[in-house]
Design brief:
Spore Coat Polysaccharide Biosynthesis Protein SpsA, Chain A; alpha/beta; 22% helix; 481 residues; single chain; 2 domains; UDP N-Acetylglucosamine Acyltransferase, domain 1; 14-stranded parallel β-sheet
Length: 481
């Protein structure tokens, strides 16, 4: 049920200068989704009555990435006044007049928190009677994080940012995770008192904690049992660290669902991937975006599938595939490249060094090795000879090649599209097919083989080849004598 007494504010207005990137920090992806999308998904799991996302830097770009049309989500624009305190202040103004519930503040660059952990934080806040409850964590290296300063009785007194900390404060290992729950009434009463008297010249939301304490309000803190959930992403090092932690979670979840992952350390699975029980994933494999793999399939090693569908009991080895459909019991690879529009029906064999693009291959067909099928349709039970290519591009337009059911094409064929090979037709080795081949016909090149005797000796005298040929010819002459 929707919790009408809960509003969630997600802070995503910052530029993220330490990322040194043209891409806004909150749009950098991990596990197939932008950082802020992970935070938004967690927020939605809490079923809050109101979700407000505060944007400023690259506003339209971020808004486009996160706006899924959900009725609970509203985008709030931060003005020119900098700081997280100001961001929360403008978001508060967009909540219904008189809202007196709890306000959960999340950071768009803290992607590893799960709904269960936030639900516990919310429960702690509501049972404690505190005006504010913050999430903290103990870190071996707290560099870059705000420190939680406690009083002699252990209560939270204030939060000091890294840039403003004294040496003693910088030595504190309890950090602020940038996640808070406030009672809306007390938050409104204090947030207008923020100033910019700090190293950054910004209105810090963290300063609200000290203001609440001066007003006699209680502030609580809940320490995360796993400090990694509090990891904020401020640079590429932390981005990779967060991606690794999230991937470890994803791999373990699928292992518990009945998927065999032989080397978790080299296996990467996006959060949006779907796997069935009894799938086997071999080392150095990446399953990305909307890829779905059916039961019994084996993927890898050394394979990357992006937005692919893999059928039951298929085997895909050392392959790169994008927007491809791989049917049941299909064998692909090694060293195959499946480009968008590839559809392989059941029981297809696609061998080594095969590339396909916008190609549909019928059930039971064999495409063995060293083959390019582009803009092609191959029927049921056909066999494409090794070294064959479809010449699908005339320099201006792409054209289609159609190979019929049970056709058998020779090695090193070139199909100059548009061309059709009829059902049951054969083509000879080395044939360049420029015209349609009728069903049941055999297509051959017209020119017979011609041998020019003695050409090497006359044209390449003194070479090793000429000497070898002379010895062979002399030996043959001696046998005749």
């Amino acid at each position: 049920m929707t919790d009408t007494q809960l509003a969630i504010i997600i802070l995503a207005a910052g530029q993220g200068t330490r990322m040194k990137s043209a891409l806004p920090k909150v749009l950098h992806p991990i596990a197939g989704r932008p950082l802020v999308s992970h935070v938004l998904s967690t927020a939605r799991d809490l079923e809050a009555g109101y979700i407000r996302v505060v944007l400023r830097h690259e506003r339209d770009r971020v808004a486009e990435a996160i706006d899924d049309g959900g009725p609970d989500l509203e985008i709030v624009d931060q003005d020119d006044i900098p700081g997280t305190g100001r961001a929360v202040e403008v978001a508060l103004q967009q909540l219904p007049v008189g809202f007196g519930g709890d306000v959960l503040v999340l950071s768009g660059d803290v992607p590893l928190l799960r709904a269960g952990e936030l639900a516990e934080l919310l429960q702690t806040h509501r049972t404690s009677g505190a005006a504010a409850t913050l999430l903290s964590a103990r870190m071996t290296d707290p560099t870059g994080y705000g420190r939680v300063v406690r009083g002699g009785d252990g209560s939270v007194e204030r939060i000091v940012e890294q840039q403003d900390a004294t040496p003693d404060e910088a030595a504190i290992d309890e950090i602020n995770a940038g996640v808070y729950v406030f009672r809306a009434t007390q938050l409104r009463a204090q947030i207008g008192g923020l100033d910019t008297a700090n190293a950054q010249g910004e209105r810090y939301l963290t300063d609200v904690i000290a203001l609440l304490r001066r007003a006699g309000e209680a502030v609580a803190a809940a320490t995360a049992p796993d400090p990694r959930v509090a990891l904020g992403v401020n640079d590429r090092v932390q981005l990779a660290e967060a991606a690794g932690i999230l991937n470890e979670r994803i791999v373990r979840r699928w292992q518990r669902e009945g998927v065999t992952v032989t080397d978790p350390a080299t296996t990467w699975i996006d959060e949006t991937v779907t796997l069935a029980p009894d799938v086997t994933i071999l080392p150095n494999t990446q399953l990305l975006r909307a890829t779905a793999v059916a039961t019994g399939a084996t993927i890898g090693p050394d394979t990357t599938l992006t937005d692919c569908e893999v059928g039951e009991d298929a085997v895909v080895r050392r392959t790169e595939a994008n927007l491809a459909v791989i049917g049941a019991r299909v064998a692909v690879g090694p060293f195959a490249h499946l480009r968008p529009g590839t559809v392989l029906a059941a029981d297809v064999k696609l061998g080594a060094f095969v590339e396909t693009k916008n190609a549909q291959v019928g059930e039971g067909t064999k495409v063995p090795h060293f083959i390019y099928l582009g803009d092609a349709e191959v029927g049921v039970g056909a066999n494409i000879g090794a070294g064959t290519i479809t010449a699908n591009y005339d320099g201006v337009n792409k054209h289609r090649t159609v190979v019929g059911d049970y056709a058998k094409t020779g090695a090193h064929n070139v199909f100059v599209a548009p061309v059709r090979i009829g059902d049951g037709a054969y083509t000879g080795a080395g044939t360049v097919v420029r015209k349609d081949v009728p069903p049941g016909a055999l297509a051959l090149l017209a020119a017979p083989q011609r041998n020019i005797e003695g050409w090497v000796g006359r044209s390449r005298p003194g070479t090793a080849a000429a000497e070898a040929a002379e010895r062979a010819n002399e030996g043959g002459q001696e046998e005749e004598d």
